[in-house]
Amino acid sequence: MNLADEIENLSVITYPHPALRRRAKPLTKVDRTIRKLVDKMFQLMYEHRGVGLAANQVNLPFQLFVVNEEGSQDFGRQRVFINPVIESPKGRREVEEGCLSIPQVYANVVRPEEIRVMAFEIDGTEVDEVVSGSLARVIQHEYDHLQGVLFTDRISETAQLNLAGELESFEIEFESKRRSKAIPDDTEIEARLVALEQLYC
């Protein structure tokens, strides 16, 4: 398994790819390859007009996500969160969310308005911040990805029923790709992710 050889061909995977439901593992080292991975994740995030992207959205098993609230390479602050922990939630607010792994699907999600986030940056600097507003929401959304949780898991039952048809379309497309061998079977996907964990986790 050579992650460096994979990076250029990484892409954003979509629901219901099994990697999206797999809990990520903490990184134990950051080398040149992981830095290259972070650059690729920012590139993909901007290409898809997102404001955040988690490692398992590019079919990798690491506790790592990238954020830029402005969603533009020319504006905003690029943030990298490695091995994040969230605590001390405060308040509640409902805001519409979408996801690069479930494109063109949107629904209102209730989340804490303020959180404390602890993590490491790509250079090893410790992060320990209290954040609120849109940044707190993006961080929580991406943190959920690392737990194998999608935003559609956090919406009301009525909203889930309303989205059922759209999600089924993704499922049908996924199974079609799997039948054509464009997507490996679950056993092959799991073996690759375990091999990557053995290298970096």
Describe this entry's structure for a reader.
It is a single chain. With 201 residues, this protein is of the alpha+beta class. It is built from 5 helices and 7 strands; from the N terminus they run ααβββββββααα. The strands form 2 sheets. It has a 5-stranded antiparallel sheet with strand order 1-2-3-6-7, sandwiched between helices.
The strand count comes to: 7
Report the mean per-residue pLDDT as an integer: 97
Structural class: alpha+beta
Using the CA coordinates, give the radius of gyration. Answer: 17 Å
Order the strands across the largest sheet as they lie in space: 1-2-3-6-7
Count of discrete alpha- or pi-helical segments spanning 4 or more residues: 5
Poorly predicted runs are: none
* Shape call: globular
Strand percent estimate: 15-25%
Question: How helical, in percent, are the residues?
Answer: 25-40%
Ends apart, CA distance between termini: 14 Å
- Main pleated-sheet profile: 5 strands, antiparallel
N to C succession of SSEs: HHEEEEEEEHHH
